[in-house]
Structures are given as C-alpha cells and as structure tokens.
Amino acid sequence: MSAIQPLLELRQVSKHFHGGGIFKQGRRVQATKEVSLSLGAKECLGLVGESGSGKSTLGRIILGIEKPEAGEVLFQGINLYGKDKAAIRAVRRDLQVVFQDCFSSVNPRMTAGESIAEPLKNFEGLTYRQTLRTVGELLELVGLKAEDALKFPHQFSGGQLQRVCIARAISLRPKLIVLDEAVSSLDVLVQAQILELLSALREELSMSYVFISHDLAAVARLADRLAVMQAGEVVERLETMEDIHCLTHPVSLALLGAVLPAEPVSRAGGMDAGT
C-alpha cells in the first residue's frame, strides 16, 4: 500500500541573507539551514522559536515569497520553485496567508468587502451579485455582519479587522493557510476568540495550517504537531502536543517557561482551572 502524499513537504531547505550595517558588509546570515518538514491534510503544524530563529523566513519560503538557495518546497506534489509555471499557478490558489499586522495587510482606501472580493475576482470569475453574496457569507462565517462589507479598515478594531483578513484568506476555500504571528498583536481575550474561530474554520472547511509564532501557549491551543527553530534549524519536534511538557531543548524550555503554567494545557478551555 503506497504512502499518503503530504499536502506540504519541505526537503532540505536553506536560505541565506546578506547582513547590513557598517560592520557587517558582505556577512552572510543563515536564515534557514537544511530544514525538512511535512504537513498532512487537515493538520496544524506549530512552528515556534525566538526572534531571528528563521521561522517567518521559512513561512515566506512556503508561500513562494522568498526563494530558497537549496532544497525543494512541494505543495500538493508540485515544486513551488520548479519550472512548471502552469502547475504552480494551478495550486497557488490553495495556499493563503494571514499576517500579524492586519492594518498593513489591507488597503486603507478599500472597504472590507472590496478586500475580501479581490481573490474572488482573480480566481472565481463571479458576477457582481454573486460576489456580494459570497462576501456577505464570508463575513458572517468569521463572526461579523454582512453589512460590515461597507466599512473601511479604520472603522474596525484590531480583532475585527483580523477577522476580515481571515475571511479574505478563506474566500477561495484553500487547502493550506500560513498563519504568521496572526494573533500576536491582539490582547489575550481577542487572541482566544480568534484561535477559537480558526479552530472552527479548520474543522468546517477541512483546511491545514502552518501556525508560526513565538507564543507557545497560543500554538498549543491550535497545533497537532510542533517544530522548534533556532538559528535557522529545527532543533526539536513533537508529533503530538500532548507531549508538550516533554520538551528538552533549551530554546523549547525557555519558550515553555515563559508562557505555560505548571498544569497541562486544556484544548477545550485554554489553561486549566487555577491559572
């Protein structure tokens, strides 16, 4: 019986950047080093690490924004940096992103409805009435109102605008969404609400996530598996989040000690009672 092909597979992915500053001219900075990861359908992979660990660079590589110097990125079996441009375009709609800064992720001169409609216009070819109806349905799906389509970004709170960005990301019913610090700029209560929304959408729409964050507590509420990065390398992995207190690498322990209580994380209710 043949093995099931991963939805996403990274094979020995490496990337360097040239350092800046007066004393760093010509210095090569290792962003990622021979990183290999895989993600199956309907899974959430948590990718954590301290600032500068390379996790966001890896996210941009997955999205096709930063080309790796070595290695392959296979999405639905297609090499995103290969020569078959038609095949790459065909799978590109199934790969979307939600960034940390929702305000810089949207055009301030466009209404929420116009922002959400952009990918629909690019890929779906809907009529005007069909687009209006779909945008309204998407807004309601993320906990907003259909009439919110007429509002501009400055008329939303941060949490509400991040819901708009999520609506745009799911508009094409993608198979994978990269969440790059998607809740990091929100307060704790709003974070919990957005994480609950993402969990429900993942179940309803059968999506996969790569959840990039420095916040291990947030990742623990959503992820199935975990990869910890330091200096561009994956230094520790967990195949189940039930083993989160079995982490041993110093970076993992620092992240764990910074955010998690002594008691295990409860997926249903966040931190266990007494925290």
UniProtKB/TrEMBL annotation:
Gene3D superfamilies: P-loop containing nucleotide triphosphate hydrolases. GO terms for molecular function: ATP binding; hydrolase activity. The lineage of its organism: Bacteria, Bacillati, Bacillota, Negativicutes, Selenomonadales. PROSITE patterns: ABC_TRANSPORTER_1, ABC_TRANSPORTER_2. Its EC number is 3.6.3.-. It comes from the Bacteria. It holds the Pfam family ABC_tran. InterPro entries: AAA+_ATPase (IPR003593), ABC_transp_ATP-bind (IPR050319), ABC_transporter-like_ATP-bd (IPR003439), ABC_transporter-like_CS (IPR017871), P-loop_NTPase (IPR027417). Residues 8-256 form the ABC transporter domain. Keywords: ATP-binding, Hydrolase, Nucleotide-binding, Transport. This is Glutathione import ATP-binding protein GsiA. The gene is gsiA_3. It comes from Sporomusa sphaeroides DSM 2875. The keyword Coiled coil does not apply.
